[in-house]
Amino acid sequence: MEAKLKELQEEALKAIAASESVKELNDIRVAYLGKKGPITEVLKGMGKLSAEERPKMGALVNVIRDEITSHIEEKQTMLEEAEVQKKIASETIDITLPGRPVAVGNHHSLTRVIEEVEDLFIGMGYTVEEGPEVEVDYYNFEALNLPKNHPARDMQDSFYITEELLLRTHTSPVQARTMEKHKGKGPVKIICPGKVYRRDNDDATHSHQFMQIEGLVIDENIRMSDLKGTLEVFAKKMFGNDREIRLRPSFFPFTEPSVEVDISCSICKGAGCSVCKGTGWIEVLGAGMVHPNVLEMAGFDSKKYSGFAFGIGAERIAMLKYGVDDIRHFYTNDIRFLKQFSVPEY
């Protein structure tokens, strides 16, 4: 029996040395040390030995089993290290190769327009104010000279949540809230960018949700000439130094007098074309002097203070600035459209 054990030991060690994978090692472990292996069979036959031979054979079996186990573990460590080194060699990165360009995101065109307008007016001493998109009727209408049942409310078909809550139809409520905070003391010089909502059918030039940037200045001795000068600076900054503006009489409940503001057409230089519908001018925004009723409701003395306000549609500006022909492009997230505004690589 001792000779048979020695023979099994030599066979096992040779098989371990010749193995080339961890799987082969596991097969060898099962073949020699498993429940059905030859060493286990030898142990089962120890009952036939004499009482003197049993301890001696038991000790020999344990030594042989431990040696085979030890060789398997050593060989397994070697094979695993070799596998790691092989994998490292196959995955070596040549750091001298040029890197692959990584596609990065960029600001949405509307975000760019809003930030550009913000930078312009901040440079002129304005601050940026924000307010809730779900607004109360008082700030959205009544504080802006639009009492209940006022016919001008029909100009802004609204999304009402309750009788007193609605999605704001303009960012003017931010102006009303800011004036109220000042408690009748000027100056006030703010712009209010944000989303607004109106019940409108979506088409190439209309959307039920759009971005608006409103401006408000209140102080002593503010005149229409201050409004015109401010809008001229805005037009030249956004559209080019060669652009001119004109003011046309209009009506807004919260300003008096009120004006529509046009810029000269960049395509025909005022001669008339299909873009400007033959007029040489393109409408861009509405503005006017703050109505005395609005000043009084916010706590300002309308005999001491005056002011002007204007409202800019960010989509309108972006369409003119970038030559976009459909407002829906800004919201459909077509990657082909968005890529046109990628930051160039240098």
UniProtKB/TrEMBL annotation:
CDD domains: PheRS_alpha_core. It catalyses: tRNA(Phe) + L-phenylalanine + ATP = L-phenylalanyl-tRNA(Phe) + AMP + diphosphate + H(+). Its cofactor is Mg(2+). Residues 111-344 form the Aminoacyl-transfer RNA synthetases class-II family profile domain. Its main location: cytoplasm. It is found in: Cytoplasm. GO terms for molecular function: ATP binding; catalytic activity, acting on a protein; magnesium ion binding; phenylalanine-tRNA ligase activity; transferase activity; tRNA binding. Tetramer of two alpha and two beta subunits. This is Phenylalanine--tRNA ligase alpha subunit. It comes from Niallia taxi.
